[in-house]
Amino acid sequence: MIGRNVDNASLHALDSIMDPHSARRFPVPHAIGIAFFLGIGIYVLIFPSRTSAQPLPVTLDLFTGQTAHGSIADPTLSIQTHLGVITVPAEQVRVLTNRPLGGGTTLETCGGDILVGRLQNISLHFISTDGNATDPYSTAGGAPGATAQIPLDSIRQFSRPLEAPSTVPTVGILRPADRLVDLAGDTLSVSESDPIEFRTRWGVITLRPEQIGQIVYSGDGLTAQQIDLVDGSVISGFVTNESLTVTPRWPGAQPIKAAVGGLSKLVMGTTPPQPKGGGTIEMIGGDILRGSLQGTITLQTGFADVKVPGGDIELLAASLDLPDAASIDRSSASRLVGAVADEQVACRLDCGVALEVPAVMIQKYAKSPAAGTAPTSN
Question: Which range of residues forms the domain containing residue 27?
């Protein structure tokens, strides 16, 4: 009776599955389980495992002088760089060059990245198509199609055919790649980066990646770091971030925390915006700000204190003779001369950054001709 009851129960459950009118009687957990396994099956069909991908065609040049044609079956290569350990999909590797006597490795990707360091892989799984290089320490060769583990320290270079594009797409993002360059020679395209805090002569400003053109951390003739904004502003100072978190532009790449002290340059891929007709602020010390004056500026003249709206100023120039004196040309074609009473002057850069700068550090401000007609001086 027990066996018969079990069989009847099983048949009843099967009938419940097959009969659409009995859907209410079908347990919800069972339905979820079946849907889960069906989902896995569909995923496997649509997104097959990378291990089933065809091996990559490469040419091997060994330190023994041998050259072999074949393919590698390794899915990734890991290299210890100045930026840390970076794992690169094999499909992304264009050329790999080893220097003799353990002198390090240079890895070039299909996307133009250059990574310098030491490979973490011990060997490559090489499938020969011409019978060569199955044993790097002999000239006997091996049968075509033979698979061998080739020690990486025996490989001088391996490269992929020029016509072989990467089979791994870059990560889809809304803007072009940023390019990170460090002092060791690594060049890496990245898809995202942290906001930058930059200490200027007048304070700390926070910048979003899309507002930055490039950051030069180290360069000839520079006594400080330099940041170029997309609106044309050039500001000197120091990045306060101890490190930047960036991610290489290939699927599955892990974020990299790069120490700022080891970087040479970070070039953003942001497309510069169109000029907004602001103006140019020349600061003492050489900084250039592209934007407009905000709020009002109080000028102490010989008659009274005059408040001039920033939008009404066509030209502001510091006096070369008096330390606190300046002249202001207004849109009404009049000129005022006196001392700027404000300690700080509000500005808004064309890239969207709002900041305040010391009035005594403004050497000159000129409104863009596109924003209005320059006045004639009285």
Answer: 2-47
